[in-house]
Amino acid sequence: MSDADAVVVGAGPNGLVAANVLADAGWSVLVLEANDTPGGAVRTAEVTAPGFRNDLFSAFYPLGVASPPLLALELERHGLEWRRAPLVVAHPTPDGPTALLSTDGDETAASLDRFSAGDGDGWRALYQQWLTLGDHLIDALLQPFPPIGPGVRMAAGLGPAGLLDLGRLSLLPVRRLAEERFGGAGGGLLLAGNALHTDLGPESTGGALFGLLLCGLGQQRGFPVPAGGAQSLTDALVRRLEERGGRVECGARVTGVDVRGGRAVGVTTADGARCGARRAVLADVGAPALFTRLLAPEHVPARWRSHIERFEYGSGTVKVDWALDGPVPWIDAEVGRAGTVHVADSLDELTQTSSELARGLLPGSPFLVLGQMTTADPSRSPAGTEAAWAYAHVPRTVRGDAGPDGLGGGWDAAATAGFVARMEARVERLAPGFSERILARHVLTPPALEAADANLVGGEINGGTAQLHQQLVFRPVPGLGRPTTPVDRLYLASASAHPGGGVHGACGANAARAALARDRRTRRLVAAGAALAGAGLARRALASRGGSSLGAGLSGRAAR
């Protein structure tokens, strides 16, 4: 294993984006991945039935097509192709209308008017607010904090009143925003369902902003998927990196970051091999893993250790992939056009689920995020079938069961089967006959998710809670908001760093840019030092061999 300018630990999307940014700057880059395949939580495999390509973890990428770091890589030139379902999101309700999020704003508005007349206009006004601030907001959120440049541009574009409105929106829970804007339930369901892609419930501070972010992106750009599977996004990143001389080595688990004189100088792998890093080490691993396992205790200041011990992961996840012999038989046929479906009866039920999670109870009626992948990308399964999946949040530590089955929290076969049956019953209620269409299923419990990707700690999918107390300058520890660490030339490049979870590549890009900036500063200092040293040598040389004659020459010229 040869040395490189930079060693990147982890070949998830953030690690691969970081590697590409460094390779673009002319650095030699080596990416070391513990798993046998690259991609982290962006991978695809046939785990249900032959011909069904199942995304093992993440699946839809609204941030991927809006993120400046990913857009800058022009991955479409390296084989990536995006596909979209006819509808973005559907949220059906029992015995009632379905809230639809469409790239056609009139279709979205019309669906909300079915809940309450006039709610369509309320949505149009909210979406117009998104169009005013969306690009500024994404630019600001994905840069290191504080985002000075984007902040200046945002202030100029919004003005004082607009900034105040944004500040208030940033603090609102979804429930309050829905109460202010809509008379019926549909708008709140769309916002709350999207906010719950993280661990932000209807009463969580900041939930309204995140819900609007995903809804705004959804109506503006859709929830696209890579043709052929999520793995296609990873493959494009790897292909681009290799074209620039970078390397990805899989099956190479890093067990330690080597530090000398307060500076990261390389890494050690599980087989004892050492790889030197001439310029930087970038870690696409969780913050607790980096600071408690990969670094020796003497290299982590006491304040950092104290905060990392309190680093909070959000709820765990149970994910089920299905191979279906036909489309999901939704009562409302419109739901079959959506790539993403949210399953929850009401905003109150979402609040109840959030409460159960907070109390360590398995939800009695779990909220489901469901994907209809063949609907979005026909290449995912044989003609006439559907590759579908759903996930539900569960407590990190299970203390009881809010449902009637008395399920335990050890995720043994009985508990897993019981909770999966609970998830499937929720779909069956909205799509009678769903269970009869299941050819095969594949289940990932929280322990299985972590075993498949060590960054999915306890089955948590966002690299740490998205609650406000662990965002911005509080991520991963208070006062940071940037990828630097207490060790010189070591950078945190994972979703544990600002701006957090989501496949946007910003955590990796920010770490790479910090490494490049640090290297430029060092080179300028070295050059300045060399110049000063050269000037000093010249003065000493003049003084030793020409000082008297120089004086004589001047005197002679003066006399003439």
Question: What would you note in describing this structure?
Answer:
With 560 residues, this protein is an alpha/beta fold. Among the domains are: 4-81 and 227-312 and 462-518, FAD/NAD(P)-binding domain (3-Layer(bba) Sandwich), CATH 3.50.50; 315-457. Helices cover 41% and strands 18% of the residues. Strands 1, 2, 9, 10, 11, 12 and 20 form a 7-stranded mixed β-sheet that branches. Helix 3 (105-113) packs across helix 4 (119-141). Residues 547-560 have low confidence and may be disordered.
Index terms:
single chain, 560 residues, alpha/beta, FAD/NAD(P)-binding domain, seven-stranded mixed sheet, 20 strands, 18% strand, globular, disordered C terminus
Give a summary of the structure in a few sentences.
By secondary structure, this protein is α/β, with parallel strands linked by helices. The chain is 41% helix and 18% strand.
Annotate the secondary structure layout.
Blueprint: E1 4-9, H1 13-24, E2 29-33, E3 44-45, E4 54-55, H2 68-72, E5 82-83, E6 87-92, E7 98-101, H3 105-113, H4 119-141, H5 148-171, H6 174-181, H7 186-195, H8 207-221, E8 225-226, H9 231-243, E9 247-250, E10 254-260, E11 263-269, E12 274-283, H10 287-294, H11 302-309, E13 316-324, E14 338-343, H12 347-358, E15 361-362, E16 368-372, H13 373-376, E17 386-394, E18 400-401, H14 413-430, E19 438-444, H15 446-452, E20 490-492, H16 506-545, H17 547-559
Parallel strand pairs: 1-2, 1-12, 2-9, 6-14, 12-20, 15-18
Antiparallel strand pairs: 3-4, 5-8, 6-7, 10-11, 11-12, 13-17, 13-19, 14-16, 16-17
Helix pairs in contact: 1-9, 1-16, 3-4, 4-5, 4-8, 6-7, 6-8, 7-8, 10-11
